[in-house]
Amino acid sequence: MSRNIAQALVKAKVALAQDVNTHWKSAWESFLDDVMSKFPSGAGFDAGPPEVMVNSERMPILIKAEFHPMDDYGHYEEWLKFTVIAKPSWDGIEVAMTKPFPEEHAGLDEFILEEIHDWLISPYDKKLNDFT
Q1: I need a surface site. Which of 19, 44, 66, 108 has the fewest CB within 10 A?
Q2: Which domain holds residue 44?
Q3: Burial level of 22, CB count in 10 A (0-12/13-18/19+)?
């Protein structure tokens, strides 16, 4: 059965929150590291993988990350911290920011949401056994 990044994230986070033995915990951590390595990189996403929180097998997924925008001259500006909530919808996954960016960064939120949405719905076919 094919799954996407969001499903793999939820599965790994829930498994790690449970009391698993050392062998399986190590496998789940490696699985999660691999899933997180697929997070967008470059074009402002250069702070590494985000902090991801999942409470149960039912979404939402809470994603806390940073974005590094450039000004009109190609110089990096301050880091923008943001939180995205991802939850299931009839069309797959719906993503939204908890707080919009300031007006001087208008439009960045749409770009970030699109990138995160595309990441979450991208296929992820590895299995836990690939990491044991």
Answers
A1: 19
A2: 3-131
A3: exposed
Total domain count, the chain: 1
pLDDT in tens, 23-77: 788 888 888 888 888 888 777 777 667 778 787 666 688 888 888 877 778 787 7
Q: How far apart are CA 28 and CA 45, in angstroms?
A: 25
Compute the distance between CA of residue 116 and CA of residue 26 in angstroms, rounded to an integer: 26
CB 105 within 8 A of CB 69: yes
Residue 91 tokens read as 């069309």
Give φ, ψ of 65 to 5 degrees.
-150, -175
- pTM of the prediction? 0.84
Provide the residue type at 35 as one letter. V
The mean pLDDT of 5-26, rounded to a whole number, is 82
